[in-house]
Amino acid sequence: MNDTTTKPQNPPAPVCEARHVWTEFGDVVIHRDLNLVMERGEIMALVGGSGSGKTTLLRHIVGLTEPSRGEILLFGENLHALERERRQRLMTRLGMLFQQGALFSALSVFDNIAFPLRELKQFDEETIHTLVMHKLALVELEPQHASLLPAQLSGGMIKRVGLARALALEPELLVLDEPTAGLDPDRSSKFVALIKQIKQTLGLTVLFVTHDIDTLIAMSDRVAVLADKHIITACSLEALGEVDHPFVTNFFQGIHARMERS
Amino acid sequence: MGTLVMKFARHMIDFVQLIGLLLLEMLYLLRRPSAFPWREFMANIFKSGVTALPVTGLLGFMIGIAMSYLMSSQLRTFGADIFIVNILGLSMIRELGPILMAILVAGRSGSAMTAQIGVMRVTEEIDALTTMGVSRILRIVLPKVLGLTFVAPFLVLWTSFWGLAGGALSANTELGLSLRFFFDYLPMVVEPVNLTLGLVKGVLFGFVVTLVACHFGLRILPNTESLSASTTSSVVTAITSVILLDAAFAILTRGIGV
After folding, report:
1. Chain A residue numbers touching B132 (CB-CB < 8 A)
2. Average pLDDT, chain B
3. Which residue in A261, B152, B170, B254 has the most C-beta neighbors within 10 A?
């Protein structure tokens, strides 16, 4: 899996690919020659200790930051190498749910979800209304919630609205930063079920960061482990048991205990 | 001392970078005029311009009254009553109007802009915008800068007008100069170029205040200490730079209009 040497670009490029990525802040090295490939339709979890650079990697992938060396390819293209309009078009193919939701606090729930749609300048208000209501229903929120402001929502609802906004443009890649952080166990398992169900309906590729073992077990097809400044393995949960690395062994024991209980 | 110089240098680098980014966005807008953020531009004109009218007008009026009152008592001792129009006209139109406007706008809108951008950074709203393919400079910084720069000369005009009105009123009660005479005599003793200078200063000050506000807003870190420190620095830096610029401007234009 660590082998990501030159692959043919045409048919089908991986959804997301990190090639020899280095991230350095001054003297501090965050990522050292990191490689990762995500295939279409899979749900990949990204795990690693605190401060191991998971969020930084996520931010690289969605184009918020740029690695100091190496490149990140989305659908076979490097975001930062593209000129503005093509980059914007490429970015509509991915949706991101931030840890705290990152809803626009000055806008209502409706306007939040409508925002990416309005940005495209392709739909009239009536179509936008239909689309927003559809997205609200998709994340199991009631139509009357549309007029609320983000400050009036509970933590779980904020995540749902954030998800609806991330899904507004029907992206192919959905990136989630700690999707269940801050939710109680009941809400969090409901949210996981919701994401899985949406993934089924829309045929998404999902990448998420988590610290929560339950979420990891419930959602992931593959787990990418970020330790020692690179991805040490990206394999199924079961195969993690055979990886010999202190972080993985430690982590896997937790998973194992949890799996046996359930 | 060394760290202070380093800090200042880092600020300057970021500041120049911000100006550069802003210029790039303007070039982009020349090619794609349809991408101009009209909504945000208008909203900023309303928020920093229209809603500032009462307070700038009132302040100008009060300062006008106070200055005129003090000057008239001085001038009367020399029997030079009539010069109140010259002094008041020149100082209001050329100096006080733009400076009062800049200080009020820095305190009112500058601080609000810094805090707003800072909170948007902390709540990751700016990152969310970026992941939707929206440029934060184009959508957040540019409409603020252009909006306030556009509306500032009008605010200067408004503040100066109320300053003169207050001065004329005070001169009327103190020296018995009629309002009619005051405003008839004003254009004869104050060259129109002074008004141009005042308006140019207005544009310049508006631009500097917003740019400083956005610069500090974009540097805010996710903690309350940083938010309050940046907002304070934003206002203090904006007012200081405006006064420094004003001094430089006064020296450069000393031969014009006086």
Report:
1. 91-92, 115-116, 119
2. 93
3. B152
What residues does A31 pair with on adjacent strands? A23
Residues in CB range of B156: below 8 A, 6 or more apart:
B97, B98, B101, B198, B199, B201, B202
Phi and psi at residue A151, to the nearest 5°: -65, -20
The answer to whether the CB atoms of A63 and B128 lie below 8 A apart is no
When pLDDT is cut at 50, 70 and 90, the band that residue B117 belongs to is very high
For B124, the closest of A102, A115, A165 (CB atoms) is A102
Nearest to A214 by CA among A248, A234, A237: A237
10 Å CB burial of residue A175 (0-12, 13-18, 19+) is buried
Q: What is the b/e burial string over B57-67, where b = at least 16 CB atoms within 10 angstroms of the residue's CB?
A: bebbbebbbeb
Residues of chain B contacting residue A96, judged by C-beta atoms under 8 Å apart: 128, 131
The per-residue pLDDT for range A218-252, each reduced to its tens digit, is: 888 888 888 888 888 888 888 877 888 888 888 77
Please report the pLDDT score of residue B233 as a whole number: 94
d(CA A177, CA A167): 15
- CA-nearest residue to A103 within chain B is B125
* pLDDT value at residue A182: 80
Whole-number pLDDT of residue B158: 96
Q: How far is CA A75 from the centre of its chain?
A: 15
Which residues from B are below 8 Å from A92, CB to CB? 132-133
Going B148 to B149 to B152 to B154, the CA torsion angle's sign is: negative
In 3D space, the residue among B128, B134, B35, B121 whose CA is nearest the CA of residue A165 turns out to be B128
Please state the three-class secondary structure of B26-93 as a single string.
HHHHHHCHHHCCHHHHHHHHHHHHHHHHHHHHHHHHHHHHHHHHHHHHHHHHHCCHHHHHHHHHHHHH
Provide the pLDDT for residue B168.
Answer: 94
pTM: 0.85
Question: pLDDT digits over A55-66, tens only?
Answer: 889 989 988 888
- For the segment B121-134, the average pLDDT, to the nearest whole number, is 89
B23-35: per-residue pLDDT in tens? 999 999 999 898 8
